[in-house]
Amino acid sequence: MPSHTNPAPEALPWGAPALPATLHPDGPWTWPNLVTAIRLVVGLVLFTMAALTGNETLNYYGLAVYWSLDIADGAVARKLNQETLLGGQFDILSDRLLVAFFYLNELYLHPNMAVPIVLFLLQFMGIDHFLSNQYLRHPGIISPNYYYLVDRKVWQLNWSPAGKAFNTGLVTLLLIFTGSPVLVSAVVLAILAVKVYSVILLQRRPAPAA
Question: What is the DSSP string of 139-178?
Fold first, then answer.
């Protein structure tokens, strides 16, 4: 089976985690998966309550749970060396569900933001989801966080600390604090351009070895 080895520590891209020397057996029963499950359940409860009551504060609480525990489950996985392919997929799918609930609630509460919200969901639920699953084509890569071992530019644009902040955090904060359809739409279009460019870069790569 093809595998990947880490570059020397000084050659790692800034903010990139080192691939574990040994991989945890794949399976559902890990501490990070428990954190992800808590994140999913609590987040969905808060977002559902926000939808039923029209309480935007609850929507923000759900977002806070999503963001904080999204950071926590990755940190726990790396600390305990419990990263798995199943855990990576569980994390990605949880992200889609929680982000969709948050943005659909915002759409209901702020219909003037329909254009940027629909555009954002289009790229996040479609193009970004496609990109986030490309690591599965490369044996030895256990999550998008290690995609720099395949393509550094694509990793930097999408899963580096700066890439993650630009792709999700920035547009959400602008949505909350500015309420400007024009500004948020401009940022979403920039994100869409980055995603399309990333897909083009991946299409130019040779197919992974079997």
Answer: TT--SGGGGGGT-HHHHHHHTSHHHHIIIIIHHHHHHHHT
pLDDT tens digits, 164-187: 999 989 999 999 999 999 999 999
Tell me how far CA of residue 116 lies from CA of 69, 92, 188, 204, in angstroms: 26, 22, 6, 30
What are the CA-CA distances from residue 197 to residues 25, 70, 192, 194, 204 (Å)? Answer: 35, 26, 8, 5, 11
Length of the chain: 210
pTM for this entry: 0.91
Distance CA 103, CA 189 (A): 17
Query: Which tokens sit at 6?
Result: 């880490």
Is residue 80 within 8 Å of residue 32, measured between CB atoms? yes
Rounded CA separation 121/140 (Å): 30
Question: What is the crossing angle of helices 114-122 and 170-177, to 10°?
Answer: 170
Per-residue pLDDT of 16-64, as tens digits, reads 888 887 888 888 899 999 999 999 999 999 999 999 999 999 999 999 9
Q: Span 98-111, mean pLDDT?
A: 97
Round to whole Å and give the CA distance between 113 and 132.
Answer: 26
Q: According to the model, what pLDDT value does residue 5 have?
A: 63
Report the number of secondary-structure helices (H) and strands (E) in the chain.
9, 0
Spatial separation of the C-alpha atoms in residues 8 and 19, rounded to whole Å: 11
